[in-house]
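Bug report (template v2)

What were you trying to do?
Predict the complex of my protein with S-adenosylmethionine.

What happened?
Run completed; filing so the output is reviewed.

Input:
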Amino acid sequence: MNRYLAVLGRQPEISVAELEAVFGDVSQIASGKLAVFSAESVDICRFGGTLKFAEKITLSPIEFLRGLPEGKITIGVSDYSKKASRKTATMEALKLKKILVRHGRSVRVVENKDAALSTATSLHNGLSGKNERKVELIKVDDDWYLVVGVQDIDAYARRDQARPARDAYVGMLPPKLAQVLINLCGVLPKGATMLDPFCGTGVVLQEALLMGYRAYGTDISEKMIEYSRKNLEYFDFENFKLEVGDATRHKWGEKVDAVACEGYLGKPMSQIPGEMKLKEQKQECGSIVLGFLKNLTRQIELDTPVVIAIPAWLRENNKYERLDILDEIEAMGYNVHSKSREGLLYHRPEQIVARDIIILRKK
Ligand SMILES: C[S@@+](CC[C@H](N)C(=O)[O-])C[C@H]1O[C@@H](n2cnc3c(N)ncnc32)[C@H](O)[C@@H]1O
């Protein structure tokens, strides 16, 4: 087992939940921006919620850097220590450069705009762990880590934008969040069947296929099933099945190992809804999700993970109002993960409809 450090995404609680579901024990450090955990290995491409993975170095940073192969080296430093600033990070980097130059090495330092290098800066300067002579070190007080993977934001953008069938009204799930939903199901064997019963344009299906699973998508709308088909065929995937079906009554025709989906989120909104509108939306979305879970519970095996993003609405007090359905879900025969928690709410600042991620297991 190795000890890893994760630089957590914009919503650390969601990033931690994703890592915990896959690796078990995860501890947050450095004012919640980082987490440490043990694992055999890590693959940054599979984790939508993590910006960087790093491994602890046992040598001092200078000994480590002196051991790098011959030739010009590029170094970047991200400082997450208690009193870190752009200045402390820059000073550390320049101090390392000075010693290395004294030892006859040619060194370029990546400029810090902040205490920590952004994902884009690390990626675009080649500090993603793939080139032995281009390295990013992370300092956390007296500990140093070597970055071994950086989230490929360009690959996500390509996956998102290349898809031929898009629908602004349905609103497409960011591929990163699709990965989070899939990972929250835990570790499944390669080839396991991942069902998305509200598959829309097929983002969850696409990410499940990229992660080595079989994808099974259903949606009430024939148009959406055609969109999913077009998108999955565009990427040349083969191991998937699609069919039209109302999730509240559909009979899924093959064994389902896990369910990851973004359910019906109600009407898109550009301003905070009034009480009447909110009540109507809660009623409509709540009845679809409950109808779906009731239908599903009869068709899946014990312990099957079910992860679903449901809507929560921004209120005037700047808090999100969630669907109050967890007790009912529990009574239907599901274990609700961390029921007492505030919830895992995914949203951009001031977004009206947030996605409230619910993690269940059939009991
Ligand atoms: C928020 S969208 C999901 C978008 C999808 N994640 C994507 O990436 O495109 C919700 C989807 O649920 C579908 N839907 C609504 N009610 C449904 C029901 N009762 N059964 C199945 N699908 C339903 C809609 O057609 C829509 O495609």
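What did the reviewer find?
The domain at 154-362 is CATH 3.40.50.150 (Rossmann fold). DSSP finds ten helices and 17 strands in the chain.
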